[in-house]
Amino acid sequence: MRMKRNTFNLIISFALIVGFAFITFLFIYRNNQSQSLPISLSDFSTSEETEEYAVYSALLEKLFVKDDVKLLVIRKQTLFSINNYFIRTAVEESFSDMKKLFSSVSEDAFRDYRIKNQYPSILSSKFILSVKYVFTDEFEFNKDKDAAWIASFFEKYPDARGIIQLSKIGFNKDRTEAFVFAEFICSPLCSGGNNILLEKNSGVWKVKEKFEGWKS
Q1: Which of 8, 12, 26, 65 has the most neighbouring CB atoms within 10 Å?
Q2: pTM for the full model?
């Protein structure tokens, strides 16, 4: 009887040890999963967003911040009208066409640019600039065709010179090259847009090339 009881106790003890070990394993596994996966995804997202706004800031400072500029007015929604062309054109054909126009831009940056600019995005207040900036909403661009909105715009923003519009940024795989489109509107006869290539050297983004664009 005593032997059976001892055997039973051993079985119970062994089951408890195995169960405890299994529960401990599950806890460690889930804890590692919950820590590693979100952190890696978060780090990736934060890293790319940090680079995006570093590029935007370098571009804005170089092209739009002059000695007497006090305020930049930036459209909150990114440009994506160029995607009408993308929608009608196959990927390889559009890449071939763009390569002819922008021969110094890498294929990685082109493809990333195309993917990201299929839809508009909303910009955040994460620019680092030496002047003040504000965002303007879509309603500013829905005025009548004779551009009567210009007077009300400059009445609202007397320190501004016009409205800046930006596309999403296409990066190469190493994020050392950035391709973006920037547009400036101050009146029907004072507007223009350009594709711009920026390069990162020693941790600093600088405008490398400004391609011929449109103007009126």
Answers
A1: 65
A2: 0.71
